[in-house]
Amino acid sequence: MDAEYAIIGGGVVGLSLAWGLSKRGHRVLVLDGSDGGFRASRGNFGLVWVQSKGLTEPAYARWSQRSAAAWAGFAAELGEATGRDLALRQEGGYDFHLDEAELEAKVRLFQGLRARLGGDYPFEVLGHNALKREEPKIGPKVAGAILHHQDGHVNPLRLLQALAADVRRMGGRVLTGQVVTDVAGGDGFAMTCADGTRHCAAKVVLAAGLGAMDLGPKLGFAAPIRPQRGQVLITEKLPKLMNRPSGIIRQVDEGGVQIGDSKEEVGFDDSVTLEVAATIAARAVAIYPALARAQLVRSWGALRIMSPDGLPIYQQSPTMPGAYLVTCHSGITLAAAHARFLPAWLDDAADAPDLEVFSERRFALS
Amino acid sequence: MDEVDLLILGAGPAGMAAAAEAAGAGLVVALLDEQARPGGQIYRDVTAVPPARAAILGPEYRAGRPLAEGLADPRIRHIPGATAWKIDPDRTIAYSVDGKAALIRGRRLLIASGALERPVPIPGWTLPGVMTAGAAQILLKQSGILPRRAVIAGSGPLLYLIAAQMVRAGTPPLALVETQTRGDLLAALPHLPGAIRGWRSMAKGLGWIAELKRAGVPRHRGARDLAVDGAGRAEALALTAGGRRRTIPCETVLLHEGVVPNIQATRLLGLPHRWDQAQRCFVPRHDRWGETPLPGIHVAGDGAGIGGALVAELSGRLVGLCAAAALGRLDPVERDRRAAPLFRTLARERAVRPFLDAAYPPGPQTLSPADGTIVCRCEEVTAGEIRRHARLGCKGPNQAKAFGRAGMGPCQGRFCGLAVTAILAEANGQSPDETGYFRIRPPIKPVTLAEIAAMAPTGPDKDSA
Amino acid sequence: MNDASPFLDLDPGGPRVSVRFDGTDHALPEGANLAAALLAAGVRVFRATPVSGAPRAPFCMMGACYDCLVLIDGVTRQACMTRVTDGLVVERAPGRDLHDG
């Protein structure tokens, strides 16, 4: 056996698990794909986000809250080990609205969730004037915002790099350019890569993002996931324009303002379209009019990994015990949970979190 | 949206010649170019240059004037001052003029965006006072200014040309520092018989060298370990040559290690590229008519592989003929009849390249800069950081970009891309083809959010957050 | 800015107009390339980088390197892609410490 755990996928999800498993003393092998593969870990928005998660499934809201609460300690430990500041800021985040009625409708949804969470859902509603005191640069068209105090953001690329460095530092093997094309069970699990190399491990965790669509069935998973495109714009580095992030605009620690995000069902097409870029640019300018003069320096499309209900899937294979599927579209928010809590579940330890609600079985029942 | 028969990006020799040829066959042509006047970099401002300056620049430069004047054809719409920032495989270009964005589409599209100077990552190359040799040429052509106390350093015939022009202008360079070696020249000798076919280019180069010798410009050959010294600005160039370290005080350092295809547009289109080992650069794949694997999209000129101005002009004419035939304005037999002499001249003009490529290879610092040297000028990422990313498993430049921001700045990797690929290839023991290149995304040039927002289908007022 | 320019101007004649760069007025050739005209006028440093604050000046003169960025009407522009017009007000582009990071 090359390792106790082989993790297929070297993105933030796979590396968070590898980091947590390494902390528990396991020998891990991470098989990461090609430089040009679809990588949500490189294209995501960098939010550590609670609001609007699990509006219809409180367990998901709680899981997100639990991860958000664990983030500070996770970032501190990872930062200290690698000497990299992950630029984590958890000082709250906004949901901006240009339309009063939409804002009110959203507030009602949040109130409903707060009741179901027993009151643990700290948000407040800011009208235009109250919001302007917090964010003096907002434009006159902004009706208001929901400020959720459990939200924040991080530098997701530094997170990715820090995880890649720290897993190695702890003795994990991380192999890149290893596109897994086949996986088979038996005595442990055997992975075959596109370049012909083979690896084996006692247990295998499929954290391959959209790659799970192909590999999942080989391990007995339904893996009912699909790509959903999000387009993101980023400006030149700017003087400080905003204090807190929102779900669609944030100023990154290097100074650029990042603008998103679209939700498009276009299959495996991660290109950038003028229509969407123009629409999200116009929305950003309406919220922060000073952005009109900012130069857009980069844009990209990235593919989210979406399950039918948008929730993560955590599943041990019903036919091949020792194989696990871990997939979600919120790998940054959930990185702390994946690093801190999920390894106990993989180990079937006493302190494993109850993840039954995230089982694949929920799709078979409906 | 505007529609034309042939849409051309770049008004250098390839673009201008393609426009003239296509218009001559009856096509409606639009020619987008960033500059106010046609000519590209090689013939920059050739229609406006005063006679005294034209004399300094020499006959090769003045040869571009008829091409630029050919744009007066009423079927050619020259759109100057146009920055193209998005190009789609359906041959639509989004561009801005004076801060206003527009779309234009061609039934055929020619990418003729020319060359860029190869990045020359040496210590101190980001200091004020360090420029590319091409920049000095542009300053001379367009603005009539030249550095007074300059050292020219690197490799390639352009070094001799700019030095000769400075001599003619009465401000000779303080020194010519050349990174190519006697060994490079020996390696080039087998290509000499071929190069004789292109003897005109060879003779020009020898003429420039003779001019420099007469003017007494010191030459240092086989120079290694170049570094620009200075506090806050270039004050000297340090180098090792002939076994001796020396420092040449100066105010300006002009760097040049050859030119490479500007592949931003062709990468943006997702076109396949191959590594050209002789020229040490990526080249978009294309057939003899400049057509790429994307139907109706052509490349010509230096952007299709470095060949110089005459090759660019000829390859542009071939695209013009091909486009005219493809759109039914020119009988294929007539196309081939007109193309035959162009192909013959092209072969002759290209004959000198293998010799030049071998005799003037990019210096070792361009391919393997020292750890402390900045590679990505925009994000200030060093070669050592790229190597560290390789140790963290980065096999290609896109993961390295995510890890360390190289290539994320406004220049979009234009001045670090080749160095990043070279460093990763060396560190990982891979070829440049296996290593790959940055994935280029729009905008290929920055565009204000106001410009892009103005193109929203619904307008900002109708959309809510 | 009072340093003698490191550049020799071959055609110093022609009409000049007033351009303000970083608070200093310069008489520059009308219609000239702004980057070239500022270099000829003795301006050596155009900006400080937003990453380290290092000084930069025109490098490529062909709109590719973005080292000659300046601020005109609140928009960062490439000086080498800008023409000199009378009354042009050019500021330094925002550098380090102007953003949160």
From TrEMBL, chain A:
GO CC aspect terms: cytoplasm
Domain FAD dependent oxidoreductase: 5-342
Record keywords: Oxidoreductase
This protein's record includes keyword Oxidoreductase: yes
Single Gene Ontology MF annotation: oxidoreductase activity
Protein name: Glycine/D-amino acid oxidase-like deaminating enzyme
From TrEMBL, chain B:
Pfam families in the cross-refs: Pyr_redox_2, SO_alpha_A3
Annotated GO MF terms: oxidoreductase activity
UniProt entry tagged with the keyword Transport: no
All residue ranges annotated as the SoxA A3 domain in the record: 375-454
CDD domains in the cross-refs: GlpA-like_Fer2_BFD-like
InterPro entries: BFD-like_2Fe2S-bd_dom_sf, FAD/NAD-bd_sf, FAD/NAD-binding_dom, Metab_Enz_Cyan_OpOx_G3PDH, Opine_Oxase_asu/HCN_bsu, SoxA_A3
All copies of domain FAD/NAD(P)-binding, residue ranges: 5-309
Transmembrane segments: none
Keyword set, alphabetical order: Oxidoreductase
Highest taxon, organism lineage: Bacteria
Protein name per its UniProtKB record: NADPH-dependent 2,4-dienoyl-CoA reductase/sulfur reductase-like enzyme
Organism, as annotated: Rhodovulum euryhalinum
TrEMBL record, chain C:
Pfam families xref list: Fer2_4 (PF13510)
GO molecular function, one term: iron-sulfur cluster binding
Keyword hit for Oxidoreductase: yes
Keywords associated with the record: Oxidoreductase
Family matches, as InterPro entries: 2Fe-2S-bd_N (IPR042204), 2Fe-2S_ferredoxin-like_sf (IPR036010)
Keyword Oxidoreductase on entry: yes
Protein name: 2Fe-2S iron-sulfur cluster protein
Source organism (scientific name): Rhodovulum euryhalinum
